[in-house]
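Lab notebook, design round three. We kept the backbone fixed and only want residue identities now. Task for the bench partner: fill in a sequence for the structure below.
Input structure tokens:
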């Protein structure tokens, strides 16, 4: 098993963690410039999530020995990477809090706002577009059953926050979703930093 951190350079990586009753939960979707797998950098640690490419993807791998050399030889870039890893950890903890504290409908809205704020599965105008074939992906992001998800999606459609076009769901702008979520604003959403080109080159 690899003992290091990965940085996405192309594509999209879905991270899955097993939840209750064998169901999967997705705490994060890593896009270009974002990292994953830092949980294996500590001694005798295990990966907390399983990573799978959602589309054709490429990553840079930084093993634990090379990571230590990177810290010694290029501390400025290493500090930027460490800041990003800490932000990702905070994001994971926030997602777990939502999973345990919110209702299925609240968690769905919070997840959609998070996806929009961090450019997950967005289209050009910032709105999220989901094919119904991604039902499982959305259920795992929210940590809910298909039945609970169908009810929540139906309410959002009734309220005009979601539009169905054939097999596609077009989600309202994040500001509208945030307003629907009991006054929640985007201020508490975590926008993870991404590595600059110079920092990526330093890792190679």
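Proposed sequence:
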């Amino acid at each position: 098993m690899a003992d290091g951190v990965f940085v996405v350079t192309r594509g999209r990586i879905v991270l899955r963690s097993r939840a209750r009753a064998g169901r999967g939960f997705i705490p994060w979707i890593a896009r270009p410039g974002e990292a994953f797998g830092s949980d294996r950098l500590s001694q005798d640690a295990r990966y907390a999530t399983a990573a799978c490419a959602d589309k054709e993807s490429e990553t840079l791998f930084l093993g634990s020995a090379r990571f230590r050399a990177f810290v010694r030889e290029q501390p400025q870039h290493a500090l930027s990477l460490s800041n990003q890893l800490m932000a990702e950890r905070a994001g994971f903890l926030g997602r777990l809090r939502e999973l345990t504290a919110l209702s299925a409908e609240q968690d769905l809205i919070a997840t959609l706002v998070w996806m929009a704020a961090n450019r997950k599965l967005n289209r050009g105008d910032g709105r999220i577009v989901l094919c119904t074939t991604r039902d499982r992906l959305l259920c795992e992001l929210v940590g809910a059953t298909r039945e609970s998800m169908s009810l929540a999606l139906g309410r959002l459609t009734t309220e005009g926050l979601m539009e169905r076009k054939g097999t596609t769901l077009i989600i309202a702008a994040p500001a509208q979703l945030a307003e629907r979520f009991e006054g929640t604003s985007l201020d508490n959403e975590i926008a993870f930093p991404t590595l600059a080109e110079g920092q990526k080159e330093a890792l190679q």
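Keep this in mind before ordering anything: The first helix runs from residue 64 to 73.
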